[in-house]
Structure formats: structure tokens, C-alpha cells
Amino acid sequence: MKSKRLRRIFISIGFLLSLTLGALFENFSQAGLVFAASSNDGSEEEDVTKDMDYILGQGKTLIRIASWYQEYDLVNLKAYLANKFPDYSFEFVYIDKSNYESIMDAQLSYNGAPDIIYMDQEMVEKHAVTRYIADVSDLCEDFSDTAKRSFDYGNRVYALPNTAQFECIYYNKDIFEENDIKIPYSFQAFLDACDELRVEKKIRPVSLSLKDPLTLTDTALAIVAGNYFCTDRGSGFGGRLQYGRTTFSEELAPYFKDWQDLIQHKIITKDMYTTDNRTTIEKFAYGEAAMTVGGPETYNAIIRLNPDIEMGTLPFYSKTGKTKALIGGCDVGLALNANTIKKDEARKVLESLATKEGQQALWRDRPGSQTYLKGTQFENSEVYDGIKECLTQELVYLPWTEWGIELNRPIRYQLGKELQQVVRGKQSTAKALANVDRKVEEILRKDN
């Protein structure tokens, strides 16, 4: 009798355990987690991992793709891959950009990273050195030299180029038309339009978040780009800087006076230092501001909030209006995890993205952009007519990529931090640039 009772107890416990484990497994499966079991000598690890991937992929080969883009910024890519690879299952691993690089670094170091990884230029160069990402030169033969140079190391290419990234000025057509404000076609005209909107029409000219130092740097350098980086002399600034032959104060100070004009005209305001990006986009989308600054992801976010908004785009003009530019370029590529056990399958995915159809899927998720695939061009909507010339004439700049790997990230960040203090009224622009110059000198001295 006693043994029967114990047996029933054990059966009940076993049943509860099976239910619990089943629920846990289902949750892990929904979360897209992949587990690897290993024997004492590790010989069965690969087979067990593949079997588990197969189960989690619901009978399909599971390919994991890591990026800092939200799900709604990859809608067209997901649809393309689902249609192109019916025997594959795709899991998109989202990690916030602020933590993305450190998490990917760690996962790559212990072979726990996804199969395909979105990377910026710095990450690609770093992991080309560590050999955590694979050489994909053969997949990139049909891309422009500009794109291949963005992700090369030792004359080999380590990431498949995404379409072009950029930042421009979005404006609300209805606000300009209803208030009889002329669309500005020079830097001075832009200042005048903002003054008229703010003073006479009581409308906020620009909605912008400057909490992120990198965003502030990009905005400031966009002004410099329209006046200087697009000139012969200005295009060589990065080369001179990384060898200690020039400084920000010496060469860029005159052009930062134009950026300071944005503060004097109350286009850039102190509250932008504490405003988050979501609030910025909401203010523009709901008609509380006439303009905002951003790229394809900004456009996607605006349209989600207000599908009926009528928008146009503007580049960053010089004072005369004779030159103009955008901040952006080939800044994002898709790298292949060199240690994934599904290397062949993941390569097939990247190979498909190197075609016109694959690039079109990436382009649809980045409205306004263009592909670097030779002989291929996509027709953007009329929203982007205002920046079309910049894209076709390659007036799109990523100045910090010319500063050298040692200066790239730290100086771009330092410049933003110093300019934040200018926005807050804590220091002058001259002081900010001098502090950046000291940081540059410190890094170059340590490197030598």
C-alpha cells in the first residue's frame, strides 16, 4: 500500500516536472534561445546544437541575425528572407545600440554569437583582426569600391554592405504652406525661416534630441560638411588630424560659428539636452514642430505615428547655398560569424542579399537610401526629392571615419560631450574645441 502511494507520488511529481519543463521549453523556443549540450569530450556538441536548432526552428534550419534595429525597421527584409528561404527559420535578435557592441564582443569571444551580425565600420575592423568574422570578399565583388573600402582589412572585405545611411532635415509641408513660409535653400534662409516660425508664427522650428553625444556631433558636423568637408581642402581634414598635422581649433573653428548660430537663433535650445528621441519624433509627427533631423529609421517612426503626414527633405546647406551635403554613407554591413556551425547556410543568406532583389529588400527598410551595388539604383518617393542630388553626386560624408581607428569613436563622442556643455551655456565653442584637441593629442601620444 505504501509503495503504491509512493509510486503515485513519484508519478505525480514526474507529470508536474514534464509539464513545467514543457512550458519552459516552449518559452525558450518563443524567445528564440538556442541551447548546446556537450559530452565529456565535446564531440557531440555540434550535432546536438544542430538538432536543437532544428527543433526551435519548427523543423527548419534556424538562422539567427543580430542587429540594433527594431522589428518594424526590418519588415521588408524579414518578408524577403521568408519567401526566399522557405526551408529556413529566421530569428532576429534585437539589442539596443548603446549595449550592442559590448554584447556582441562578448558573444563572439565565447562562440555564442548569432550567425549573421549587423556591424558598423569600427566593429568590422576590430573583428577582422580577431578573426571572429569571416572573409566575404567573393560576395562583394559587384559592389562599389567605396562600399568595399568601408569594410576592408588587409585587402579583404569582412561585411556585406547595407544600403546607404544618411541624416537629413525632414520638414512638414503643411506647416510651411499654411503659414506661407518659404522652403529654405541656403543656410541663411534656413535661419530666417526658423526665426519666422518661432517669433511670428509661434511654432517650434525644429524638434531634436541632443541627449546622445554622438547625435550632437553628427548634427554639428553636418553643418560643417555643407561648408567645408565637401571642398578639396576640407576632404583631407581627417588625414591631417590622425597624423597630428592639424586640430579642430585650427581648421574647423570658423565653421562651428555656423553651428553656434543655431543656438543664437534659438533653433537649438537647452531643453534638447534632456529630451529623448521618442519625444522628439512625436512632436514632429503630431505637428508641434516644423522640422526634425534624422534618417530612414526616423522616417519609419514618423509614419507609424502619423501615416497621413506630408513631408519633404532638405540637405545641410552652406551659407551661400551653392554647396550642400548630408551626413552618412556606407556605415552598416552584415558580417558572417566565422565560428557558426551553420556557416554555409548563413553564407547563402548573405549571397542572396548581394543581389538586386536582396538589396531592394534592405532598401525598402531604409527609405530614401541607395544601394552600393554597381549598375543598380532604386527610385525613392518624392519625399526625398530635396536630397536626391546629394545622393546621386555622392555628397554624403562620414567625417569621423577619416580620423583613424584610434580617434574615430572616442573623439566623435568627446566632441558631442563638449558641445553639450555649449548647448547648456556652460562653456564656449572655442573651449569645447580646445578640449577635444587635448583629447586628440593625448590619444596620439599614447599610440606613439
Shape: globular
CATH first level of the largest domain: Alpha Beta
Name given to the CATH architecture of the largest domain: 3-Layer(aba) Sandwich
The counted number of beta strands is: 14
Average predicted local confidence, pLDDT? 88
Strand composition percent: 5-15%
Outline of the structure:
By secondary structure, the protein is of the alpha/beta class.
Please write out the topology.
Blueprint (H helix, E strand, L loop, with lengths): L1 H30 L13 H12 L4 E7 L7 H10 L3 E7 L2 H13 L6 E5 H10 L14 H6 L1 E2 L2 E2 L2 E2 L3 E8 H6 L8 H14 L3 E4 L5 H17 L2 H4 L1 H6 L5 H4 L1 H12 L12 H9 L3 E6 L1 H10 L5 E4 L1 E2 L6 E6 L2 E5 L6 H11 L2 H9 L23 H5 L3 E2 L10 H16 L5 H19 L1
Parallel strand pairs: 1-2, 1-3, 8-9, 12-14
Antiparallel strand pairs: 3-13, 4-5, 6-13, 7-9, 7-10, 7-12, 11-12
Task: Describe the model.
The protein has 448 residues and is α/β, with parallel strands linked by helices. The chain has two domains: 38-163 and 331-364, D-Maltodextrin-Binding Protein, domain 2; 165-329 and 382-447, D-Maltodextrin-Binding Protein, domain 2. It has helices spanning 2-31, 45-56, 75-84, 97-109, 121-130, 145-150, 173-178, 187-200, 213-229, 232-235, 237-242, 248-251, 253-264, 277-285, 296-305, 343-353, 356-364, 388-392, 408-423, 429-447; strands spanning 61-67, 88-94, 116-120, 152-153, 156-157, 160-161, 165-172, 204-207, 289-294, 311-314, 316-317, 324-329, 332-336, 396-397. Strands 7, 8, 9, 10, 11, 12 and 14 form a seven-stranded mixed sheet that branches. Strands 2-1-3-13-6 form a five-stranded mixed sheet, sandwiched between helices. Strands 4-5 form a two-stranded antiparallel ribbon.
